[in-house]
Specification:
Homeodomain-like_sf, elongated, mainly alpha, Arc Repressor Mutant, subunit A, 70% helix
Amino acid sequence: MSQATLNQVSSLVDDTKLCDIYDNPIELAKCYIDRFYNESICLDDLANLSQMNRFRFAKQFRAYVGVSPYQYVCRVRVLAAQKLIRKGAKPAHVAGEVGFFDQSHLAKHFKKLCGVTPRQYRDEHFKQ
């Protein structure tokens, strides 16, 4: 686990108001994702945080949450993008802020989850 990830985990563990459920490793991983979605998140780091190998972690995460860790990260990022777009941020700027590589990566996942592109979402939101 990288030093940056260790520092993030340390701050996460210290913040009991955000993450009360430490006896469930999947909840801890979800909490980590919810808090650090805009950072690079690696399956190996999540598995190490949960004290499992990557295959066991991925299988247990999917069974507990209903989607793969990657899909969960993408959902959290898309929800964050929706909030920023509703606040008036341009989709081109939102992608990097929520952890996607670029605008096309955001658009792909946004359309898959929301049924519209970020620009269409922005246009629909500001018409109301």
